[in-house]
Here is the input.
Amino acid sequence: MSQRLSRKEIKRDEFMESVGEAIEYVRGHSRGLASILVAVVVAALIAALVYGYLERRGRQADEALARALQIRQAAIDPVASDPESRTAPSFPDVSTRARRSRELLEAVRQDYSRSDAAGIAAVYLGQLAVEEGDLTTARALWEEYSSTSSDHMLAAEVRCNLMGLDRTEGKGEELVSRLRGMLSGADEGLPHDLLWYQLALTLDDLGRQAEATEAYRRIVEDFPQSAYSPEARVRAGDGGAPLFSP
Here is the structure.
């Protein structure tokens, strides 16, 4: 019994000794520990402030973009236009609406650079440029977006827009080669039914009708559930309608 008690006493003494050492350490390093605690608290406060700022800035960017897109889609009313309406803005003519829309979209890019909203604003600015015949500006905006936002939901649409510019600018043969290469390899950004559709459109534009028909048929046969399948079926001559107008 005495031996067992002595072991308990030894353990108790060791525990008390450890506690004493901890107390002495805290006493001796209280200033340093207090500094560390203050630093941790300050870092947490800074992180909270930064997070709140970014969240608030993100909301502001989204609101600014929403307003710009609302203006872009506003009604045309030559008699009673109301450009400043927050619920149903309207403009006297298309050019005035386009000018105001561009101003707001450019402001989003400038005021909220590096945000998702700024990237989306660039996509719509590219569309405005196309409508005005400025294909060089449109290509620059879309290529910039495609290179920096490849994982965004709009990335595929922007790449298709760039292919459309290639066809418009007479780069169809080069585009055909690039599309065939993408189809023979692995392009994680664009699904194959979309690639076949773009290839068919390009071949059609080049007057290579037999090849275009075959590309449309590939969509019908290999991707029957594709959104492009109904159109491809008609263009391939499988829907009861002629492939090309006389």
